[in-house]
Amino acid sequence: MTKRMLYLVTWLLIPAAWPMNPVTLQDPRAAGTLDAQVRKFLGSRRGTWNDLNVPEADGQKLHDIIVEHKYKSALEIGTSTGHSGIWIAWALAKTGGKLVTVEIDRDRHQRALENFQAAGVAGFIDAILGDAHDVVPSLKGPFDFVFCDADKDWYNNYFEAVLPKLGVGGCFAAHNISERGWEAGYSRRFLQLVRNYSYLETTLFTGGAGMSITYRKASK
Questions:
Q1: Which CATH superfamily is domain 3-10+27-216 in?
Q2: Cβ distance 168 to 219 under 8 Å?
């Protein structure tokens, strides 16, 4: 059995770390309490997010996109230790949504679970330990928001696996994508792919580590 197959079997046999039922903050006081808890946690960890996590500017951008468009069904490909997932789940707490996030590394996955709990957003997240190469195509969807921050040479494959499950108006954000710099090689291939679809619209966010933001404007 290969390592990839072992991770997939682990995901299939072990229940997800958090319940699937969406959680909604109906009480404004509860929402205010969560906001305070998330802000306090993020403030206490500012500048310490290493290990493949996104910078704060990108986390804030992901949060703002979800809130602006009222997205509710989100997928994250590459959890790392949870920085981006916290920003995404914080936004979904405001829209009544849920995040499915996938991480292949057991240690990073475990630390992400601990960070989700400490930030107060664990109830808005289903965290999967598994190989995204196998897990992502197996997910049913649909999704209205996807954030990709995993192995860069597989970005095109992730996108093509997710696109049929991305609803009209949905968004696919890909991290470390830019027109120049060390990312140029795989960025060029990825941007060529997404720009080849006439019903997609792609812009670049340069405020952090570089990120493409693609919206699905029509079904075809």
A1: Vaccinia Virus protein VP39 (3.40.50.150)
A2: yes
Supply the DSSP string of 37-69, one letter for each residue. HHHHHHHHHTT---TTPPPHHHHHHHHHHHHHH
Task: Please enumerate in sequence order all residues whose Cβ is within 8 A of that of 29, keeping only pairs 6 or more positions apart, or say none.
Answer: none
Interaxial angle between packed helices 106-119 and 83-95, expressed in degrees from 0 to 180 and rounded to the nearest 10: 40
Q: pLDDT tens-digit profile of 100-159? A: 999 999 999 999 999 999 999 999 999 999 999 999 999 999 999 999 999 999 999 999
Bridge-partner residues for 125, per DSSP? 99
* Domain ranges for the chain: 3-10+27-216
Q: What is the DSSP string of 132-159?
A: HHHHHHH----EEEEEE-S-GGGHHHHH
Closest CA to 175 of 142, 197, 200, 208: 208
Place of tokens 């910078």: 55
CA 129 – CA 141 distance, rounded (Å): 18
Q: Which of 127, 162, 89 is nearest to 11 (CA)?
A: 127
Run of H or E residues at 115: helix 106-119
Question: What is the helix (H) or strand (E) element at residue 77, kind and residue range?
Answer: strand 73-77
This prediction's pTM: 0.87
